[in-house]
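User: I'm writing a tutorial on reading structure tokens. Could you give me a worked example: one chain, its sequence, then its tokens, then a sentence or two explaining what the tokens reveal?
Assistant: Sure. Here is the example chain.
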Amino acid sequence: MANEALYTNASSTIYNDAGLNSLGSLYGANYGQPTTDLIVKDLRKTIFDSAPQGFYDLQILNMQAPVMHNNTEFAWNEKGYGRDPVVSTASVTGGTNQITISVTAASLGVVTTDTLVQFPNGQKGNITSINTSLSQITITMLTGTLAPNVAVNDIINNFSSIEADGASSYSQNFRAITIERTNFIQMFVKGMQFGDAELEKWKRNGTTDYLDINRREFMRQFRIDISNAYWAGTLGQAVLANGTPAKTCDGVLSMMQKAGSPVATTTIANVGAALEAIALNTEYGEYGEVKYAFMTPTMKNNLAKYYKYPLIRYNVSSGNDGGTTAPLVLDTVDIGSTRIVLVPFKRFEDTASFPVSWQNQILLLDQKNIIPAYFMAESMIQTPNRRTGINLNTFTNFVMSADFSIEFNNPLACGLVIAN
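And here are its predicted structure tokens:
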């Protein structure tokens, strides 16, 4: 009788494939066919991981040794170039041996009297007077020359100091000027809980690698937390549900915006030219330095097409494939003074982590200037339960905690391209 009860449908399904389905069969549920526990469900043991895999950002960041700090707030100082030009704020007619020019307030702090300056046309003169109340400087031209006309926003070079023989004093008193930057160290925590019996069932009777993939996904989601803070973190304070305040760290984009890093807004058709312009505008390192450009794979493909445009820079493969492959792979752009490594970063397309606008961005980073920071080493614990004899809990928690921040030196050596 038990075997006869196995088949409950019409006689057409008895003793054939349609009438013999495992428990949980989709076919049986959709088409009213019988199921039985006498047939094992053909279930692939390995659960396929369909999440984006690339974490190139953290891999490249970890090329720099992390620095442990003694507090969850830390600061550092940067010394800039130490030399700035004089910028005019009004038009002045030249034609005389001496000219008085209105300048920006910042210009008053970069020169002194007896500073040789150079006009846009190459003529030179010496600053003989500075009027801080009127924001004006007076320049006496070199003997026998007349001052040129000066326009608004003219750049007048801070050329050199100058001295005459027999002097008993000097005018240029130098001090290095530094900029202080600050960041907070953010604390992260994630946990997962299993009932004791539940966990034992998974260990003894699990038909897939669910426990293994659960642990891997747990770690990946923790890395995503840190990666999101690395890119898009904002310096500030969050208030937890229990009322406790907690620090949040500044990320790459926020620190670039605060420092005034160069930004180029362009179209997809001109994305390559914009990237080159940003690279040239952020060269603070040695000739031929390497920078990393992070972007979505789609944006990287657009960039490849720009450099391999048909009839200009694009050649169809003529290798063993008989010329049937169009090689659109592009990993590096070398403009001589800077070599740009293109990094495809799929997670910029993750709308659970980033605004949609990030898909249109290229972040060009001088990676050696970005140093990971932490306060305490990461920890991962497994809580005791009733079986350990320590407490009455019939569950186990797996908890991971860490803290993270970045020290971002000279964000002006980095830039942003927005390609719409």
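What the tokens reveal: Confidence is low (pLDDT under 50) at residues 1-5, 43-52. The longest strand covers residues 395-408.
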